Structures are given as structure tokens and as C-alpha cells.
Amino acid sequence: MIRTNSGKIHPRRSSLWNIPTNTLSALVYLACALFAFIPIVGYFAWAMAFYVFVAERNSNFVRFSAAQAFCLGIIRMIIAIVFDSISMVAKHTVAMYGSDPNFIAFWGEVTNPGLGARIIGAIFAIALTIVSCYAAYRAYKKKLLRMPLLGDFSEFLVNDIKPPKRFRVFKP
Predict the structure, then answer these.
(1) Which residues contact 112 (CB under 8 A, 6 or more apart)?
(2) pTM of this prediction?
(3) Phi, psi (5° rounding) for residue 111?
């Protein structure tokens, strides 16, 4: 169970931008999910969730949601790097050995190398986006979604890593 500062599940307002905690929790999940589809930015979409996790002082509900979104972002980044690397290696292998008759006899004519890795990576990305959208929906309804393994790790982060006493928050 997540320990709270005042015994409540979570306060009404966040300490970051004075918006409702359920709205901020949902925005953290959605921002990480949607930024992940922007090229180059997608590798660092987890940074926004990390910022909210570190900067939030009042609500453990927001901190838990941010920690879980951070973990999802890291998983998404690792999957993207792995499948992008596989796709790149396949392209370079075909570019180097594609005209060799022995290569063509063994592999056949390769028209689009690395397509399978890109498709599998896209399937994982879409699945993680669906999970993030569902988590955002649950957070907006003020219900805590504990994902397997990620929930335990996020609870550890929230309970054992305390926010700093003074943290400069950029206000719009």
C-alpha cells in the first residue's frame, strides 16, 4: 500500500501546477504514450514522467502514476532500440551481401530487410500505448492501476525515494 502524507488516498491539487491530481496523473501517462511516437523525442519521452515524479511533493498518487509511466517509457525505449538495431543490422547485411549468389540461394531475394523487426516493434509500441491510455483512464477516475512488476517497483520508488524539500518548479 502506498503511504500518504495525510492519511488520504491523495490530495485534491498537485503541488506542481495546482491542477487536480487525477488530471495530472492522466496527463503523465498520455504524454509519455504520445511523445513516444515522435522520432528522436520518443527515446526520451520518459523524461517528463521522471520530472513529475521528482518534482511532486504533495500527492503520492501522482508520484506513483509518474513512476509507473516512467517505467513504461523506459521499457518502450529499450524495445525501440532493440528492434531498430535489428532492422539496421538486417539492412546493412543485405546491402553488403545481397548480390552474392550464395546469400541469395540461402535467404532468397530480400526486398525489404528488417521489415519484420519494424513490425514487431510497432506492435509492442501500440500495445504499450493502449496500456498507457487505459492507465490514464483509470488515473482520471481516481483509481490506482498497479501493473504487474511495474506496480511493485513504482511503489518502492514512491515509498523509499522522498521528494526534495525545495525543488524549483517552472510555472507557466
Answers:
(1) none
(2) 0.77
(3) -95, -35
